[in-house]
């Protein structure tokens, strides 16, 4: 390139001393020969011996300057080992300063890390752990959508990691209750109690057989309820006042009270044969017209033996408690003292890659360390816990290069891929996120719900027609008699069929009677035609559901795509440094498509079956109360349990590896010229094959466990429906229910079990694509509240910022200031001292590394960026005049401003005098197609008016008057001072 200036960034730090010395001498000779300025950033003293001048920096400040000999003479040579160095091999002089950004605590920490006296293995491991867990800024995984665990706390994850316990809780007691042995033992007692009682309800009769087992079942439930009470009382003692802060915990207590109430009702209204009373509630032939002296002949009885219905309610509440117990456990564990390290999962692949990147590492050492890694973790790939990592590092440090300290060795491993094990999207997160994305389509959503309700009512209609066929149309009895005889003079054989219709009956005296209120042939016609005719509304409603579903998903996808790009472009610079290009491209290309498929699953496999289930269970409880309630409880329990958590983790792992593979592919395409020029297709393909092989295994595990969720629901519902059908068949045999009621109940259960199974399919699809939705939500969604209007002051409290998060250098550090409302405040300093960086933090272009920006003592981080920027106006050094009229340029500051408001802002900025002097006034065209020549001061006043029309609480000026002459600058400054007071 034959450059005038050559910049070297640690260019020789990885070389041996001899090679480094040779290159440094070559560079020094080139600088003299080619009249070239060479600026080298280095931390090694050996590269500075031939430098013409040296700048010594520490924590954003130049602490000394001179030649190698001058620094040696001042006794600073020993201190240079701990300081970043900027060396120059030309005769150029340096002048540099910055905002004092040095934090004594950070400098002390950095010095300890590099101090030779503190380089013991244990100390190095402690420093490594602190760097991995408590970095000053969050670092994004290169192959993942997830941030580091400490950022998950900032972003509002459900479970907050704590080093100290929450006040007013008993941590020891909660740890005992949340231990897997206790937790799953209590759940097993719940399930056993439910299974025994629900089976008894299915097979026993309310009027006759339940009384034989009632006492035993009550005693069993009472013993189990004692276990439930002990568990809840201990948890209340552990949570104390924190109990009331959790909806799940309070619901669990209420559910226990309902369990106790249902059990008490079973004792109070216990079945008793000696006190059995039977009353006639109605007659099955109530529609039969009676002649004088006639009575109804088919009464319907009801006894006072109603314990079975309280037992069914008891089962429903038990199912609710089974659903609530895991939620209560999650909340309880969040209050216990937990190290952040306990929630980390570190990628073993990233650890292997980091080991191979260590300079001068021997292949034999890498092989030994990989062998130790497999032995410690017990597996060859996947994620490892923090404890496993620490055990491995204690052994690995011994195999580091001989000339490398433990601290330097571990510093090469600080960028491992670590993710939180606490926060992964499950089915409930998918549903809530989907409804948020659909919330702007209320009319379409309401219409869809109405249509699905109509669709769900078709199943009860089918059950009604099935009951009509069973009770009225089908024959009461059919006799087929084999006969043989002469017909028409010939011997013939035939079958004589004798049908006794349902409207025929026999009186006690043996005479035959006929019901006239229904005709079997008519009932048959109504039943068959009804079943056929409901196909028409079924098809119409299906079409309408498809239309509204497509409309909602298309609009939601359009909104997400636009909002995704808008949100990404509005992010601070640090956002892009924490994410790879492949990760962001994968968001738009792959994740949006997967989310689109997920939303279709939410509609067809969640909304539709869920509403169908609610309507179906309502009718089932009406037809057969005890079986309906037990079925409802079982469905709730099955849908919300199973291997969903494990499937969610596998989905998240697949999302990470998929983004990593996409980045590898895009990198190979971007570098295709280099690949072809150097003929390295084979190693590139080999590396990519290894990556895709890892992805294949992750995809298999994702699909397998997602499928296991549906298999679990499908199998459980099939088994349950079979048991309930067998129980109903026995009830028909004992004449407890009619055949028509049996057909109706079985039809409803079969039709209900199908949507429940479909819900299992939703769980599979939701979990399989949840990671994509989570990746989008982490960027697009913002649940922060609006920033309050500035009333007193804006403050900076120990604000720190660094562009490069991989170094200890801070561009701003410990900056504190107060900007009162109505004041005109200036930030003054030489070029490069950090003024623009500070202004970028104030405008939220950069996310602070540490410290607080507050509005009226309220942390700005808690509020949405858009609401804060609505109070901000900025005037830059170059102004920024756009093509258009003066009035248009002013209105760019506030698109809703009227002409009068724009002109008023212009008067405040003292634009009126020169604007009125123009021929076209405010309609004068400015910019590249200007029809009038404006001075620099006039241009800046227009830009100031554009800022003022926003009516900002805070006006930021970035060197806004530096390019103006002294007189114009003084005039604008006086104007600003007056405006601040006004």
TrEMBL record:
<dbReference type="InterPro" id="IPR027417">
    <property type="entry name" value="P-loop_NTPase"/>
</dbReference>
<dbReference type="InterPro" id="IPR036640">
    <property type="entry name" value="ABC1_TM_sf"/>
</dbReference>
<dbReference type="InterPro" id="IPR039421">
    <property type="entry name" value="Type_1_exporter"/>
</dbReference>
<feature type="region of interest" description="Disordered">
    <location>
        <begin position="91"/>
        <end position="120"/>
    </location>
</feature>
<keyword id="KW-0067">ATP-binding</keyword>
<protein>
    <recommendedName>
        <fullName>ABC transmembrane type-1 domain-containing protein</fullName>
    </recommendedName>
</protein>
<feature type="region of interest" description="Disordered">
    <location>
        <begin position="136"/>
        <end position="161"/>
    </location>
</feature>
<feature type="domain" description="ABC transporter">
    <location>
        <begin position="796"/>
        <end position="982"/>
    </location>
</feature>
<feature type="transmembrane region" description="Helical">
    <location>
        <begin position="215"/>
        <end position="234"/>
    </location>
</feature>
<feature type="transmembrane region" description="Helical">
    <location>
        <begin position="306"/>
        <end position="324"/>
    </location>
</feature>
<keyword id="KW-0547">Nucleotide-binding</keyword>
<feature type="domain" description="ABC transmembrane type-1">
    <location>
        <begin position="449"/>
        <end position="768"/>
    </location>
</feature>
<feature type="transmembrane region" description="Helical">
    <location>
        <begin position="524"/>
        <end position="545"/>
    </location>
</feature>
<feature type="transmembrane region" description="Helical">
    <location>
        <begin position="704"/>
        <end position="730"/>
    </location>
</feature>
<keyword id="KW-0472">Membrane</keyword>
<feature type="transmembrane region" description="Helical">
    <location>
        <begin position="602"/>
        <end position="623"/>
    </location>
</feature>
<dbReference type="GO" id="GO:0005524">
    <property type="term" value="F:ATP binding"/>
</dbReference>
<feature type="transmembrane region" description="Helical">
    <location>
        <begin position="443"/>
        <end position="466"/>
    </location>
</feature>
<keyword id="KW-1133">Transmembrane helix</keyword>
<feature type="transmembrane region" description="Helical">
    <location>
        <begin position="742"/>
        <end position="763"/>
    </location>
</feature>
<feature type="compositionally biased region" description="Polar residues">
    <location>
        <begin position="145"/>
        <end position="161"/>
    </location>
</feature>
<dbReference type="Pfam" id="PF00005">
    <property type="entry name" value="ABC_tran"/>
</dbReference>
<dbReference type="InterPro" id="IPR003439">
    <property type="entry name" value="ABC_transporter-like_ATP-bd"/>
</dbReference>
<dbReference type="Pfam" id="PF00664">
    <property type="entry name" value="ABC_membrane"/>
</dbReference>
<dbReference type="InterPro" id="IPR003593">
    <property type="entry name" value="AAA+_ATPase"/>
</dbReference>
<feature type="transmembrane region" description="Helical">
    <location>
        <begin position="181"/>
        <end position="203"/>
    </location>
</feature>
<dbReference type="GO" id="GO:0016020">
    <property type="term" value="C:membrane"/>
</dbReference>
<dbReference type="GO" id="GO:0016887">
    <property type="term" value="F:ATP hydrolysis activity"/>
</dbReference>
<dbReference type="GO" id="GO:0140359">
    <property type="term" value="F:ABC-type transporter activity"/>
</dbReference>
<feature type="transmembrane region" description="Helical">
    <location>
        <begin position="246"/>
        <end position="269"/>
    </location>
</feature>
<keyword id="KW-0812">Transmembrane</keyword>
<dbReference type="InterPro" id="IPR011527">
    <property type="entry name" value="ABC1_TM_dom"/>
</dbReference>
């Amino acid at each position: 390139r034959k450059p005038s200036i050559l910049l070297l960034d640690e260019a020789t730090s990885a070389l041996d001393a001899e090679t480094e010395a040779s290159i440094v001498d070559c560079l020094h000779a080139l600088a003299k020969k080619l009249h070239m300025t060479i600026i080298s950033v280095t931390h090694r003293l050996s590269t500075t011996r031939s430098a013409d001048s040296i700048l010594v920096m520490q924590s954003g400040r130049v602490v000394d300057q001179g030649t190698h000999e001058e620094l040696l003479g001042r006794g600073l040579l020993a201190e240079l080992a701990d300081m970043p160095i900027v060396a120059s091999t030309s005769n150029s002089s340096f002048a540099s300063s910055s905002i004092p950004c040095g934090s004594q605590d950070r400098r002390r920490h950095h010095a300890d890390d590099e101090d030779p006296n503190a380089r013991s293995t244990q100390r190095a491991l402690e420093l490594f752990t602190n760097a991995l867990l408590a970095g000053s800024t969050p670092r994004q995984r290169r192959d993942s959508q997830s941030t580091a665990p400490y950022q998950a706390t900032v972003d509002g994850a459900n479970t907050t990691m704590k080093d100290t316990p929450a006040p007013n809780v008993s941590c020891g007691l909660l740890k005992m209750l949340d231990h897997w042995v206790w937790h799953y033992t209590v759940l097993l007692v719940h399930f056993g109690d439910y299974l025994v009682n629900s089976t008894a309800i299915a097979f026993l009769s309310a009027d006759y057989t339940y009384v034989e087992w009632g006492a035993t079942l009550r005693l069993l439930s009472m013993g189990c309820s004692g276990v439930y009470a002990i568990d809840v009382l201990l948890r209340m003692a552990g949570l104390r006042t924190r109990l009331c802060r959790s909806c799940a915990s309070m619901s669990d207590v209420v559910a226990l009270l309902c369990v106790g109430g249902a059990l008490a009702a079973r004792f109070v209204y216990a079945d008793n044969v000696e006190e059995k009373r039977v009353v006639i509630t109605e007659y099955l032939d109530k529609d039969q017209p009676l002649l004088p002296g006639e009575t109804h002949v088919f009464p319907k009885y009801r006894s006072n033996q109603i314990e079975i219905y309280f037992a069914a309610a008891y089962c429903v509440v038990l199912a609710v408690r089974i659903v609530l117990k895991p939620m209560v456990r999650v909340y309880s564990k969040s209050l216990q003292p937990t190290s952040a390290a306990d929630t980390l999962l570190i990628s073993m692949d990233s650890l292997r890659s980091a080991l191979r990147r260590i300079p001068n590492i021997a292949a034999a050492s890498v092989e030994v360390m990989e062998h130790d890694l497999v032995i410690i973790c017990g597996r060859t790939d996947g994620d490892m816990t923090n404890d496993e990592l620490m055990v491995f590092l204690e052994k690995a440090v011994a195999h580091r290069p001989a000339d490398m300290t433990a601290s330097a060795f571990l510093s090469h491993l600080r960028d491992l891929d670590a993710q939180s094990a606490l926060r992964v999207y499950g089915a409930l997160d998918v549903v809530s996120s989907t409804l948020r994305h659909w919330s702007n389509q209320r009319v379409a959503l309401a219409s869809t719900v109405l249509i699905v309700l109509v669709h769900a009512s078709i199943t009860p209609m089918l059950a009604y027609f099935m009951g009509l066929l069973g009770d009225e149309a089908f024959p009461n009895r059919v006799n087929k008699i084999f006969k043989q005889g002469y017909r028409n003079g010939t011997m013939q054989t035939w079958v004589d069929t004798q049908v006794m219709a349902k409207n025929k009956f026999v009186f006690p005296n043996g005479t035959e009677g006929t019901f006239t209120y229904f005709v079997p042939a008519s009932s048959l016609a109504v039943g068959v035609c009804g079943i056929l005719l409901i196909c028409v509304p079924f098809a119409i409603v299906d079409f309408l559901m498809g239309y509204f579903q497509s409309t909602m998903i298309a609009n939601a996808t359009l909104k997400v795509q636009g909002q995704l790009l808008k949100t990404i472009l509005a992010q601070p610079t640090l956002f892009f440094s924490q994410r790879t290009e492949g990760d962001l491209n994968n968001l738009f290309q792959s994740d949006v498509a997967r989310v689109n498929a997920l939303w279709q699953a939410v509609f067809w496999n969640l909304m539709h079956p869920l509403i169908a289930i609610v309507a179906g269970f309502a009718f089932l409880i009406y037809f057969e109360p005890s079986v309906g309630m037990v079925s409802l409880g079982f469905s709730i329990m099955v849908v919300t349990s199973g291997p969903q958590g494990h499937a969610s983790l596998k989905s998240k792992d697949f999302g990470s590896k998929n983004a990593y593979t996409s980045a590898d592919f895009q990198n190979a395409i971007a570098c295709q010229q280099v690949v072809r020029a150097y003929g390295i297709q084979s190693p590139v393909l080999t590396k990519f094959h290894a990556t895709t092989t890892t992805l294949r295994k992750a995809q298999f595990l994702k699909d397998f466990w997602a499928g296991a969720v549906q298999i679990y629901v499908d199998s459980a519902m099939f088994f349950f429906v079979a048991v309930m059908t067998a129980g109903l068949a026995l009830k028909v045999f004992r004449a407890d229910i009619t055949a028509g009621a049996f057909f109706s109940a079985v039809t409803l259960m079969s039709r209900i079990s199908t949507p429940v199974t479909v819900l299992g399919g939703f769980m599979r699809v939701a979990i399989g694509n949840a990671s994509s939705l989570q990746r989008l939500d982490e960027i697009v969604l913002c649940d922060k509240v609006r920033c309050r209007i500035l009333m007193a002051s804006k403050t900076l409290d120990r604000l720190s910022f660094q562009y490069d998060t991989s170094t200890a250098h801070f561009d701003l550090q410990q900056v504190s200031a107060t900007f009162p409302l109505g004041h005109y405040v200036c930030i003054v300093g030489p070029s490069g001292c950090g003024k623009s960086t500070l202004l970028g933090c104030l405008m939220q272009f950069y996310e602070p590394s540490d410290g607080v920006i507050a509005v009226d003592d309220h942390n700005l981080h808690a509020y949405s960026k858009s609401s804060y920027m609505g109070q901000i106006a900025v005037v830059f050094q170059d102004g920024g005049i756009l093509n258009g009229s003066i009035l248009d340029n002013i209105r760019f500051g506030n698109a809703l401003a009227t002409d009068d408001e724009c002109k008023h802002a212009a008067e405040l900025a003292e634009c009126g005098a020169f604007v009125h002097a123009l021929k076209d006034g405010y309609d004068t065209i400015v910019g590249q197609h200007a029809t009038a020549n404006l001075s620099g001061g006039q241009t800046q006043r227009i830009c100031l008016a554009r800022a003022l029309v926003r009516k900002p609480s805070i006006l930021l000026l970035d060197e806004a008057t530096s390019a103006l002459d002294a007189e114009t600058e003084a005039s604008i400054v006086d104007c600003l001072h007056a405006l601040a007071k006004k």
